[in-house]
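Weekly modeling sync, notes
Attendees: S.R. (lead), two postdocs, one rotation student

Agenda item 3: backlog of single-chain predictions. S.R. asked that every request posted to the team notebook include the full sequence so nobody has to chase files. The rotation student volunteered to paste the first one in as an example of the format we agreed on. Action items at the bottom.

Example entry:
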Amino acid sequence: MLLPSVRTVLLRELDALRRAVAAYPDDASLWERPPGVPNAGGTLALHLAGNLQHYVGAVLGGSGYRRDRDAEFARRDVPRAALLAEIAAARDAVERTFAAMSDEALERAYPEPINGRAVGTADYLVHLATHLAYHLGQLDYHRRVVTGDAASVGAIAVAALPERGGTHADASTMPR
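Predicted structure, as returned to the notebook:
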């Protein structure tokens, strides 16, 4: 049963993304770009939220979300509150879409070609989860470099995974 596992990981990482954005001391630090760092933390947050709202919410869930990928990388000085709202919208898109999906959907081709190729839905959902984790790590490093704060936000926390038997920790309470 891959579907519940991918859902769990996506939601865990989105909760960590929210905590990471909230951990910046102010809005301006989200947009700092130290030498050699290609993307500001705010850019990464916009990209991740837009990516999931499109590929999960719109394509798989029919949400009607319209992605502007270029704007994800071009916008600057977006207030933290707006970033957190985008992350919440991405989380809602994942929740709604996965609640309506069946395991059989994972066996089909993803409904939209990816770089001109037909890929499996299960493969693409795993890709989206690893893409989210990859950029979440970049965001965590950005925050640490910009703020000098080496404290963790509990990204990719094993404690947030369900225990055998179905219980799991609330990822939103993971230590910072």
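Discussion: group reviewed the output briefly. The chain has a mean pLDDT of 92.
Action items: rotation student to repeat for the remaining queue; S.R. to check formatting next week.
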